[in-house]
Amino acid sequence: MARFVIPILLLSFPLKTLGQLSLYHLAEYQHGNIPGTEPENLNTLYDQFSLQYRWKPLKASLRIEQFYSPDSLSGDYQKISQFMLNYRRRGLDIKLGNYYETLGKGLLFRGYEISNAVYEDQVYRVKQGFYKDFLGAYAGYTDQWFSVKALTGKMLNNQLPITSDKRRENYINAGEAQGFYKSFYFGSVVMNSVFNDMTQNFLSLYTGGSVAQNISYYGEYASAVGSDQSYFNTSMDSQYGAYFNVTYSIPGFGISAELKDYHNFFIGSGFSDPPTLVKEHSYRLLNRSTHVPDLNNESGYQVELFFAPADQQLITVNHSRTINKLYDNFSSFEYFVEWYATLCKSNQLKLFADYSGDEIRFEPERYTTGIYYTHYLGSEWSLSFESEAQWLKRQFPNSAASMYHNLFGSLAVNMSTTFSATFVLEYTDDPVAADRSNTAEIETSHFFPGLSLSYRPDRRNILQLFAGERRGGPACTAGICYEVLDFKGIELRWILKL
After folding, report:
1. Residues 6+ apart with CB under 8 A from 447
2. CATH number at residue 144
3. Are 82 and 64 in contact (CB under 8 A)?
4. Do 225 and 208 touch, CB atoms closer than 8 A?
5. How many angstroms separate the CA atoms of 86 and 112, rounded?
6. What pTM did the predictor assign?
7. Model pLDDT for residues 133-143, shown as the tens digit of each residue
């Protein structure tokens, strides 16, 4: 436990400095494991400690990540995982160390961090923060007419554990220039990538802005360039990505349309994250069913419309479709509608219905519906009820189709943002999720009961406790999807922000 003394000692002293010092601390303790995995009662402790200091135009940041598990063979670690020096003054921006940056809309280059997320791969079983940063140098300048950026260094491959020495083997040199004219902007990105002794060069051109007061647009086309490919080459052997969107909105009404075409567009270690063009849901069963784009050969579109039929009501309609031609014409699609309303000031109601399918996952049809209801009891108390149901058809090649069911329900008691207690119960008869690997028989159904408690004694501290069995699966946030493992046991989290 000595490795966790440093953060605790730092928290014990008053934070009085000439500049501004901020602190973030996340600690997660688990007693349990993936159901059906030995040892059944695995003890793990993950700790993330971040400091940021500002003084006039200077900023310095440091992150320490630690993992300890006496029962695991995955290996403990204690690392300074990030550090950064930043100077910003009068449009000039210089960074050294670890930082996040996005060029254009991320077709060629995108860094990110999913706040409060702890990532654990089922193969390596090492916990770490979920982010994709860049280690190197960055310089940028912006004024009212133009902006320029240049960066060089190594991109993180966050699919590998933090204990691996192969996480930064992708060298990148890139630059971006952007010009502004009235309500329009135009830009270009050039990039050089070196990975596994393969050198690639890319060029991207983009434009965006407002055509009229209520209409905005963005378009970008990126392509590999070099001796064997020209910029506008869209043949089967070419490597390119295209994205376009247009939005129209007025008070009470809005509509947006997006197009994508990605071809052989998995670059280097996979550092690009272009727009997905699928609806990102907060609903549990729909989020778990989100289509994850395959950048090797995928095209598609998304259209979303919202309108307010009455005061304190909103209807959202979304449709998306993709075609992937890597091996065959695999398609995925979704039709989604949601109605949200505030009734009599003390009741909030959301109803949704969804019809979707994803042939790459051998799920040609999914039907999902749900109801979310919150009643405010006066003062700071409220009750929330959530219920979702899904009918899922799965059909593998040369076999008959089978229908499975997923159910989700929760009941929560909330006291403003200070306290909440939530009972969650999930059910599935899908053997992919229900079957346990350590038993001889094939389990055809399974319940996932769980109790979550959250307590916020002040604006700086958050304590969270989970006990029971939690179903994992894909989780998507800000266009980034990652796998969450099943868990059975007790989990305690402490988040501190100063």
Report:
1. 425, 426, 427, 469
2. 2.40.160
3. no
4. no
5. 17
6. 0.89
7. 999 999 999 99
